[in-house]
Fold these 3 entries.
Entry 1:
Amino acid sequence: MNTQYQTVKVELIDGVAILQMDNPPVNQMSEHFILELKQATLEAVEDPEVKVIILTGTGKNFVAGADVTQLLTVKEKAPFVAKLMDVHRWLNALEASPKPIIAAINGNCLGGGMEIALACHYRIAAKGVSLGLPEVKLGLLPGSAGTQRMPRVIGLPDALDLMLTGKFIKAQKAWSLGLVDAEVPLDQLRQAALAAAGNFQKGLLSHQSRRASRRFDRLPSASEKTHLINFIKAQTAPKAKGYIAPFKIIEAVEKGLSTDFEADITREADLFGDCLVSDVAKNLIGIFLNERSAGRLPRIKGLTPAKPQKVGMLGGGVMGSSIVHLLLSSGLEAVLWEVNDQALAKAVEAIKKTFAYKIKIKKLKPEQLEALIAEKLKTTTDLADMAGVDLVIEAVLENMEVKQDIWKKLEGICRPDVIFATNTSALPITEMATVLTDPGRMIGLHFFNPAERMPLLEIICAQQTSDQTLATSVAFGRTIKKVPVVVNDGPGFYVSRQLGGLMGGSVFLMSDGVSPVEIEQALMDYGMPMGPATLSDLTGIDINYHVNQTFARRLGDRYKIHPLTEAIYALGDYGRKTGRGYFDYSGPKPVPNPRVAQVLADYLKEHQVAPREMSKQEIIDVMLANGINEAALMMQEGICDRPADMDLAMIYGTGFPPYRGGIFRYADKWGLDKVLAKLTELEGRYGARFAPAELIKKMAAQGQTFYQD
Amino acid sequence: MQEVVIAGYLRTAQSRCRPNDPGRDWFHALRADELLAQVLPELIKRSGVEAKEVDDFIVGSATGVGEQWTYGGRTPIFLANLPETIAAKFVDQQCGSAMAGVHIGFMEIAQGFADVVMVGGMEHMTRVPMGGTTKDRGLAAPNLGLFLNPEYRHWDMMSAMNMGLTAEKLFAQSGCTKEEMDKWAVRSHHRAAQAQADGFFDGEILPIEAPQADGTVMSVTTDQAVRGDTTLEGLASLKPAFKKDGVITAGVSSPLNAAGTGIMLMSKEKALAKGIKPLATIRSIGFAGVDPTIMGQGPVPASLKALEKLGMSPGDIDYWEINEAFAIVALNCIKELGLDPERVNVMGGGLAIGHPLGATGNRLIGTLARILEAKGARWGCANACVGGGQGVATIIEREA
């Protein structure tokens, strides 16, 4: 057989052809790679000298999935489905091969890679490698027979779990599920694959009985399938609202897994096509790509970031303890400072509590936590102990003087290259940095609560933040496994202000007679985790009020507090913390707070406004128009300039529905001319808060979009 | 010792299994435990007992892995929604599994430890394939030492685990001819087809609604593998199935099948008290081990042992049900025990009706009891060969 391929290395050993896939950087299934791999495998099948074929990968990857950038360009379903059927025919030919094919899974075996392995007759995985069908996370389904082969190999319940969550499993779990036949240390993989090849040659293993498409023994009976599908549908419906792929996956297995494999995979390809051309998939693929490029700003390109190993944490409250959790979990050393021993003891207890879930699910043993704390966490009430740290993160009282005082002291203690990061959520960082001799070392690292779980890290550049400080901060964000999104300093930075903008339309709608319950429901139906009233109750109506005051003071009349907001604030029902806010939390379920309802009724009566019906779409149009306007205002003010990063920030920081793609993506889809028209109409109805940003006017006039894809 | 009677017998039809082409199996969309779970409540009802009176449930299957794992015999009870008070156990004596269940139930009742014992058998050879496939997937993992260590070479495990090769070996030593085997197979199909046409099996088959590959639902009431048009010429033209120069073809081997079978055992005393007319009384049981590479000779010593306990000889038995795992097994048994072939498998045998491995024992005993009834005969012996080198036998008596 031909041994000259660009992306496949061929080696022949005693009748065993070892085909090593090598398509840098991650063995993605790009078109040219599939073409070569197809040719190489089929040639090996044809070659009379080859008796057994071993398929393996290079480096950390077997095959890490499809080339999603290529998928993003697909606009029409039919031609793509035809191409996909070619892949099916190839995989079917591999499976039907008269020669055994062994997948020696050396590294990540994901998506299309997993589907290639499923078409092989024997799978050996190196210890610790990840396997899975993560397509659902990109709004897709496993489209190369994964929905049909996986259940036949590991049974429908486990296959659905893998396909609907998109989770990765490690080799050991894959072995226990029956997905792989053996799990061996990486350095023994080749030897084990050759031994399996020998067993096939000796007749100790038979590849005929290992053809996944022909297997039937793990499939449910008709009645089991009915019960399982009904259960899964009921479970999925509320969780996957707005998404397409989970339902298509269910459809693929419900109508598939029959005795006619050809029909099953043809249907699967068609369902894949449905998903691929949907906005949801485009949005989710976009997010996936954006996430990889988040924080990769031109201004820090080429800089070598420092790698902080020892991090000082000032303050051990809710945020501080969560951040220490992150540091310890990332293998870093932490030095925690608090004002006194009592506060320190409380902080250490709080840190332990943040690990409670990991202990509950047995990912960590209590004694391991104790050892981790003993080894990696130092506590102190003396700022002088910050002398040896590489980075300081501050999460003390939200008071400019207190914070500046600490920074001034630290300037005399820490090395000059140590970055000073503040976790403030409201104070201007540029002003905070003025006390420093070198304000370039200061930056904002805005974590979201609970920091150990929320994936976003909002990085705020003050006016004088140096490029080196930023480069190190972005790298640090990735070290602690956060998605780093960089913005510039301004009131509420990006996320808080954007969320305020998105939710800010509700008070105008209420003052126009729209029921707050309807607004709440419209936002939930849109996909937000909660509506404006619930969010206010959670963060505190008083806190929001003060933030709005700051906005009004620093950003001008546009942000003037609405009289209805004033009236509700004056009630003194500040939300969950006072037991009542927009909702009353005294019963088993929150119910609308009659006191707020009365304030609203009085307001409407006073202004002679009658309650009115408004469709959910109309409500969403008002809310989103305001949100988009806020985004455009921040762009024109220079708070942010990368729509892709901003959309990520809203998704990961506020739970904005990923399948909507983000605020900027939604704006492009809606059309900026229509956004402008809506804002103009709303400005007429509700006033200056909705006055269209100049940027929107300009972009609408020129037919531009925020995204350039 | 209490006398033990067969108070009831019921089974599903036996579908023809095809692990490589599942859609052609009438029962491909139903599990073995689902088949059995449909049989059990109806068996209880037809036997004239209350479910809560059943003391023990013994279920046999030759392949208790995957979906045929029963959690100690309990899942069929749960699936049939029977009382939790029914104890359960799972028995594996390969093709003798259900008959072993009858033997255990017989002993439990005979010794006075139970009054009513229900015996189930289940096997689905499409959904839980036998042999190599099971081994390949790690579901059956016999000790490799048995195959590789010279100390165990005498067991010849490669032959011992290949039923076709054991049949070849039995044929070689039996003195029978290939034509005799083919003729026996034709007889088996013709007798079974005639019995079907006469409605004989209707009395023991519970119709099952089974989803089919084309989306329709079929009421399955007949054994799928019976082929009344089987000819000697057709069988003679078949190629050897297990070794190149062999004689054992697919035509003289039992097909792969799926079924659920059930037998209700009861103390005679209890049956009388409840006014139940038993099908037959169990008089003796036998079990024997033989060379695993010639497992097909197992029924001979097993039957002789059972007869010996009663002081009887083979000629005293009116009708025989010999499991036709292979035609040669029945022919060898007839030859060695000196039986009148006209008294053997009179309604056809496993070659036609099918052999769902662990479920077969109930069918052999149950069908035999019904044959005795139909023929007005008294004594019957059911036996079967068992993979791994065993034989099992049960002698029953119909009392007028």
Note: Chain B touches chain A at residues 19-23, 28-31, 34, 66-67, 126-129, 132-133, 136-138, 211, 213 (CB under 8 Å).
Entry 2:
Amino acid sequence: MKPTKTLLTAAALATAAGSLSAEEMTIVSWGGAYSNSQLKAYHEPYSEKTGVTILNDDSSAEAVAKLRAMNEAGNITWDVVDVVAADAIRLCDEGLAMEIDPDTMLAAAPDGTSAADDFGDLLVSDCFIPQIVYSTTFGYRTDMVGDTPPTDICAVFDLETYPGKRSLEKRPINNMEWALLCDGVAKDDVYSVLETPEGQDQALAKLGTIKDSVVWWSAGADTPQLLADGEVVMGSTYNGRLFSVIEEQKQPVAMLWDAQVFDLDGWIIPAGLSEERQKRALDYIMFATDTQRLADQAKYISYGPARASSAPLVGQHADLGIEMSPHMPTDPENAKNTFLYNYEFWADYRDDIDAKFQAWLAQ
Amino acid sequence: MTDASQNAGPMLAADGTPLKQSLARSLRRQKLRALLLVAPLLLFVMFSFIVPIASMLFRSVENGIVENTLPLTVQALSKWDEQSGELPEEDVYDAFVRDMVVAIDNKQHTRLGSRLNYEETGMSSMFRRSGRQLNKLDPETDGPFKDQLIEIHDGWGDPKTWAVIKTHSPAVTNGYFLNAVDMRRTPEGAQSQPEDKQILIKLFGRTLFMSLVITASCILLAYPVSYLLATLPMRVSNLLMILVLLPFWTSLLVRTSAWKVMLQQQGVINDTLVWLGLVADDARLIIINNQIGTIIAMTHILLPFMILPMYSVMQTIPPSYTRAAKSMGATNWTTFWRIYFPQSIPGIGAGSILVFILAIGYYITPEIVGGTKGVFISNRIAYHISSSLNWGLAAALGTILLAVVLLLYWVYDKIVGIDNVKLG
């Protein structure tokens, strides 16, 4: 009797241990409405299909620093991490994210197009699996701009026609580009001008013309709040945040899509996971980034799916019942004049220009 | 008497061992037991306080990455004169390719690129781009490499690139500390940063100045409140105490956000002033996103840390002293200034130290209400920890901040005397 019992206990323990590690994974994201859209579009169907329990951790804002610390401590507790493309590039550079082969690790489109072609140029790093295209763009108070609502990014720098405060992000990225665009630099030349100290000074000088009228934000929720309170007449933020101010909270705010800056957000898998966990993470990624799933996410939040094949499948908002396509940053009507964020440039110049920018702010 | 002289040897305990030994053993056992009792605390302090601080101190000077990633190159570069303005010879390029092939295999080259990018903009992409082509080279057969490397990226044909690698190759560096005081390490020695990039010294100064202002305004506000708390009848003072503690128990973020609602231009205070006609509608006060906003919000948040020690000290001041002074003809002011105030100083001291040290390292409140002119050095430390990943610089800034606090503590001890601090 005794040996059998021990054996049974051992078997039970092994199953318990096995199922514990097999049925749980920690997915890191940004929290709020965005995590909720992932929960509905990815996590719930995936748990239903595989029985894996998904734990959420809203730590994406500090993901790079935390992953680095975990790596140094030799104990990585995250399985899949949602980060912006610039962070993915840095994690890849630091050897903290594993490299992904799109053709074997990601699902092909329903019509057979390979994942690499379906994502196309959006595969900006060897470790990055794009998920959404979002944009940083401006919203303005419709009741504070008189009869001439702004249609042009340079309205931000036009204090005469549009008096009042504007909110801009407290970092050089995007602001420097917009300043140069409105200071007569051609779109294609922006980054070559910004490479030079003179170009950086030019951008700061242009920003200097509105410096006294700027409220600088550091959290994505700041501009929506400032707009809703009438504290600013216009302000930059992520387009999904503006969507919820306009469509969900019905505030008198409208979008100024001109010169919106496209950026990407997506997944990375931390380097150094155990084989079993890595397999599970890859299985999740294969599921969550297929054509249908990416299109599903757009039912809950107004960010464009990163696959070309997902765009035609975008439908209506799950609760509001409005068509989502016209609210996508990638919609042709909105994307008449867009600006593409240059990852490599900012990976190089970020620290240098940030130091200058902060010194300029403190003056 | 005879008995005693017969037993002249050592005194024995009941079990036959010498008494001295037996006593020492039981004392040792007691000490061990006491040590075991405090062991959890000791270990906790060790791992949560001493180890992190030591690791921060270490990180601020540690720079092994260059030498570990490019060992042969660093050796070869030691013979090259970076002042000559000429490119290094083929041996350096050859060593570099050998190092890089190993580094690319271990995925270390991009990490080194990020490290060197803190010193010279452009290094990050140079290492990343070169890495893609360099791993196709075989160091044994494909040489010489000088022209091939310059072909791959013209940065390798710039003597400055090699000078940067050489300057930052020592395993222990003062570079981060120099950066932390707006200077930098160059082949010609320490130099100050270009003027348009100098910000950290300014932030240190601002942090100290604003922390002093916040401490002073906390003293001014807390003194009368603590006095009332200590002297009013129990029933009233308890109610007052709850009013002091209630905000203390509320989440820091909620309180800070509440100040945003209060202070902004379309906020409660401005609306009230406009409604009262004290301020014109088009000239609303700007009391947030600047230094005033930070001072107001932080004074409010840190006030309980001043009130509580003051209150507990004032409670111990016997009222008979002031009555005695008055009975001998002292005016109210003299009584307060000569009798009451000196006895309350230890409370002010304790509160000031608490508030000042908390204020100097504050991060989230200045970030939310500080705008551009009300941010502290800790906001810059946070940037280097989480955004730029320049942990060496963050550690150097943290170390300097720690040193400043210790220095101020020492000055305080010299002037006021640390014995003169009481928490009750």
Note: DSSP finds 14 helices and ten strands in chain A.
Entry 3:
Amino acid sequence: MADYKEIVSKYKDVPGGIIESYHALQREFNYIPEDAIDAAAQIFDIPKAKAYGVATFYSYFQVGKRGKYIIRICESAPCHIAGAAQVVAALEKELGIKMGETTADGLFTLEFTECVGQCQATPVITINSKPYGDLTPEKVNTILAEYK
Amino acid sequence: MAEEMRILMRNYGKIDPLNIDDYINANGYKGLEKARAMSQTDLIEEIKKSGLRGRGGAGFNAGMKWGFSYNTPAGQKYVVCNADEGEPGTYKDRLIMENDPQSVLEGMAVCGYAIGSNKGYIYCRGEYPYVVEKLNTAIEQAKAKGVLGDFDIEVRMGAGAYVCGEESALIESIEGHRGEPRFKPPFPPVTGLWGKPTIVNNVETFANIPVILEKGADWFAGIGAKSYPGTKLMTLTGDVANRTFIEVPTDTTIRQVIFDFGGGVPGGKKFKAVQIGGTSGGFIPESLLDTAIDFDSMGAIGATLGSGAVFVMDESRDVVDVIKQITNFFEHESCGKCSPCREGTKRMHEMVKNIYSGQGTAADLDLLERLGTVMCKACLCGLGQAAPSPVLTTLQHFKSDYTSKFN
């Protein structure tokens, strides 16, 4: 709890700083711990419900644990017609988990996302925000190997 | 063959974007210097005269918008750059920010001087942390050089909410709230960020400002379509040979964009449809391809220019399959504040899924059309008002794709 307070407190005097503090928490932990929501509510002097409401509004924030590497697959129309579904199948098969799940070793989480703005190279995935384009099921293994 | 006209992208590949001296040597910050030598009202008149209209989707005259803030007395005013580009198939703002970030900062500083603001925010989407880093470097360099004077710029990062591209939702997000749109009026130029007069312009709009000042309003007004002058950055995706970006005058036709610049449909297949302006744009059939891309010409055929995304589909594509994906997108991205959008996007997706799986009837198509028409009128913000457009335009132009699913 002390750690969370320290991170969140840095943004206390930034107008509208709660979202910036959530970004900072995610940079540190890769997700927003439940207790950090309490800390944010106290520090920004708002009801806990509101602090929670802000955190859960945005799809890039996740309250509660997830994997070390978050793999996001774009499901917007340009990626869809470029074969995103085959990439999803390859990722699920390789990691042995379904979309929305985290591997047992806590290394990978699979999430759907909307457009990540790398549409010159559809279909696209990102791993902790780093984009990989022109994906094929064959390329999936090579890319995952970088993170294992 | 038509040619590209690189105004926004004039420095693309020619300067080191992270070296401010390169930008200054390429006439950078001359526009701001010129602006500061003018009176605020003359400056706003000059921008009005250029005819520059917002490049974010609404197409409002930029100078007129600035005038509203200038005319609203307040101790503090704000300039906000909307860098939350989230329209699927769009990456033009990223291109500008990565390749010429100083042009955006300069445009914002000009606006700051015009309306009487010393504080700017760039709201950059959460998907682009690597762009945020570049923007911060560019801001540090501009501050160190002193070119911005007393105008301060801060970058704020979004967190994956499409609705935050709507200006009042974006403002809510900067204030640290859920990104839900506000009731309007009052509009942001009068009552915006923390209740103060605020200009929210798109990245591409701001990037146009320095060169307008450098070369003059008349020069700019003479490029492209009269009612929507200048160039437009377009990003080509889908079934098109050159999946790339282009910058073209606004009187270029859709056909030129796809076939001259895009190289046409690959694999010997025939063209079927194009969706322009992002996922909320209308679908356009072959018969309307000779329309110019400018805002008003597109509006006249029930389509939009929007973000300038160009998503091409060949004859092998099933329109209902694509629409299923698009309606899924809107169900996910609806913020839930107003019920026509919250319920409408959900039911629309449900009906399309139903039709796709062969369980639809002709009555469903009538219901889809009725729901879409209601949403266009009743939704609180642009998201919900535009969400039915792909459904309505495909019902109009590609109805057989739907009816062929019926059992």
Note: The radius of gyration of chain A is 17 Å.
